[in-house]
Amino acid sequence: MAPGLRQPMTRHRPLLERQKELRALESAVADLRVTDEGVPRLSCGGLLAFAGPAGLGKTTLVTVARARASAHGFTVLSGKGGEKEQGLAFHVVRQLLQPALAAMDETERRDFLGSWYGIVAAALGLEATDTAHVPDPAGVRDGLDWVMTRLTMMKAPVVLLLDDLHWADAESLGWISAFASRTADLPLLIVAAYRPDDLPREPTTFRTLVERNGNRTHMLERLSSEGVARIIREEIGGGAEDVFCEECWTVTGGSPFEAVELALRLGERGVTGTRRELPVMRDLAAAVKGPGLIERLKRLGTTTVRFAWAASVLGGSISQEIAANLAVIGSQEAAEATERLRAARILTDSHGPGDDLEFVHPLIATTIYRDIPPSLRVGLHNAAAEAVRAAGFGPTAAARHLLEVPCDDRPEAVECLRAAGREYLRAGAPEAARRVLTRALREPPLPEDRAAILHELACSTFLIEPTATVSHLREALAEPGVDPDLRASIVYRLAQALAHTDRLAEAATVAADEARQAASPRIRLRMQADHFVWSAFRTDEPDSAARSRKLARLATKLTGRGLEERYILGLRAWDALVRGEPRQTVLACAEEALRGGMSWTTENRGFEVPVSVALTFMYCDQPRRAEDLFTKGMAECEHKGWRGSHLALSHTLLGYIRYRRGCLTEAEELVREGLRIADRVEGAVPAQWFAIGILVQILLARGRTGDARRLADRYHYGEVVPNAVIYPDPRTVYAELLLAEGRRPEAEALLTAVGDRLEARAWRNPAWCPWQLDLAPALAATAPERAVRLARDAVKRARDFGAASVIGQALHVEAEVTGGPAALDLHAEAVEQLERSPASYELARALVGHGAALSRGGRVHEAADRLYQGLETAVHCGAEAVAGQARDELSAAGMRPLPLRYAQADTLTARERRAAEMTARGQTPAVVAKELRLTEQGVRQLLSAVYRKIGTDAVGLAEALKTFPRPLP
């Protein structure tokens, strides 16, 4: 475990005129007490904050909180911000958690942290097992949430003390702000003290948290003249004159810290508080801070001054040994200087483990630090960088001092700063990494290292400022003699950054240019893959057909031996899908791409291709296979700490798969979770676009048009369209919303434009974008002939692709726009096709549509059977709108809905399992019917339930049955 940070505690001071704050503290601590049964109560924690300028007693209140919590036997964890430590990422977090972790041995610590160890290790100052492991900031925050929550439940009740929070590092403050808002259900009380005017501008989350904290945030007032008089008289005697005490209040400004310090000095000088002693009092008051403090320090001797300067440079918990080294004095001189500074109430003992020191008050530390001559201060920081690293405090502690030192062309400084940058990236602190790596470039580095440092700097800015990433990487590519593998990584990251800033055309061009000049066949193939990726996801690709032909030719030459080849094959599968080529082609390429493995977290590889390959199975009526791939991919992302946009998009698309299967309630929950994650991640706009579109579709399917509109308006969905390909297509989804609202002319225009755009790219698969299936019903009333043509063309395209779900969906639309007796056969075939697929929602729609058509034709008994089946299926899907339509049709036909005939279940019955196994072995429905003593229609209905429960069609049935649970005996 890396050297820990101390848990400081300032000595007790008198508390006057703080009755309201003390009552609030007592009440908050009392709320944490256990119940009579000895079980900690929940919903009793939260945040109690004390705010005000320096010297008003915030630290004393925190000290009282510690004492009272300890008296109750509560677990106390504490941390303190430091003016000089604000740049040390997770400095305060380490203070909070390291003591508890240090009490465990290595085995206990790893058991306690479990799978989170690799994600939070660097942030907590633990030894990382995988130095190449770079979690994203969201993953680290989630890990810290988990660690603190588990520690709280193990050691409940817990009180967190946070002093000088205005000086907390940005990473700690950001995590504390987010975590504090979720502590109401934990036996955890957070007591925070801070100066509102000294909070950095960025922590809007903390400011919002405090504003919502209501009456649990206490703004401290200055002491009255009576309060200051009491402090003075308690120290020098009750005979102190009123005029003397009034002047003491004036010179201290009602600051409890200054009043106490002044009273102590008056007592030491034997002042009794008479009018004639006012000049003495004023001199003593001036020595509490500012120039007077410096004069008092100088009177302690040169050695002591140098030691105090060294201590102020080190900041925080101060090692006497390191401070002595910086001051260039011996150990005996350091001990004597320490005693003099203790006696002068400048330094005191730190109350954490060990013999470290700390300043009595931050005001003293700041005053002394600012008094150091600038040139000497630089030298002390330079020496401190070497000393703290030699003492084992790591590169980040040293880098903090190097940031205060002018650039001096030193390779060892560059090496230290780069090491700090790597450590910050592993800790999920990209902003801190950017600071030190920017400084490393200014040192400057050796010419041969410059491109690598620019690449590292670009990695640090990718999540926080991708436009800066682009600049850094272009500069790196301009460097001479860049290693080919490093150059490939630079180009990959540059293309990715361009894509994330909605500049996909540039991303594709960068990869194509590099592919043309790459000498290595492996790198050339990798760059070609990247070119195909970003071209495929452009909405404005000029010659999509030519790129598709080139991709198809290249894919036929590949065997899938290497990762680059598998990526090409995966891209070929996706391209064949959107173009509407036979699904056998799509599935063959997808299976070939997966044969050698395709990780979602391969270094310097995006997860766009693995995700696309997984989704091809969904469109090809094998959603269970897609779900399995997503489950594995999401587990990889979570293990690596990628819990930001990666996890947001994964949750969202897994919800999309469930939507396509007809599990609308579960789909909505998954997509809402994806949107929640995306909303909290900076720069996760693409993930938001995916989530909003899918959620709109789900809400429309559930009959909640108003909710869909409010969602679209909140995110301005439909107003701005990105240059990247998003699925489902945003324009098509927005048109569906317009249709649900009855705004047909607007929807018609939008869908027509979508069709023109996709036709130009030869993207003709209605399974991927059903613009024809939406436009045809919209035109049925005003342009019936065109509506029928569109529907028939969609049916042809669906048959060319070959997935039963989209064939059935297209036939259902054709039937609706055709109408009359001629539509009945189309309705029947739509149901027949959808019964062969796992698409429950579309089956429910087709059943109800068929039933309604039969009812209008006077075939009431047949209609009733279809409508009852449709109602049951819709209810089990969570499709309230379709269920309502079925009930209305039944009522209009004079029939009453019956109770549901079977409960929803994901497991197969013994008969369903038997039918599935026989079908997977190639047995015909007639053979299966004879074996199970059913009609062939009964077998088809049995298999329809199988396909929907398992999540596959007949093609994927044999493989799916291998892992699908068997029915209980």
Q: Can you give me a brief rundown of this structure?
A:
By secondary structure, the chain is mainly α.
Write a concise keyword list for the protein shown above:
single chain; 969 residues; mainly alpha; five-stranded parallel beta sheet; two-stranded antiparallel ribbon; 48 helices; 7 strands; 64% helix; 4% strand; disordered N terminus
- Spatial order of the strands forming the largest sheet: 2-3-4-1-5
General shape: elongated
End-to-end CA span: 53 Å
Sheet-strand content, in percent, reads under 5%
- Structural class based on helices, strands and sheet pairing: mainly alpha
- Put simply, the count of helices is 48
Query: Which ranges are low-confidence, i.e. pLDDT below 50, for 5 or more consecutive residues?
Result: 1-13
Helix content: 55-70%
Average residue-wise pLDDT: 91
Largest sheet: 5 strands, parallel
The beta-strand count equals: 7
Radius of gyration: 35 Å
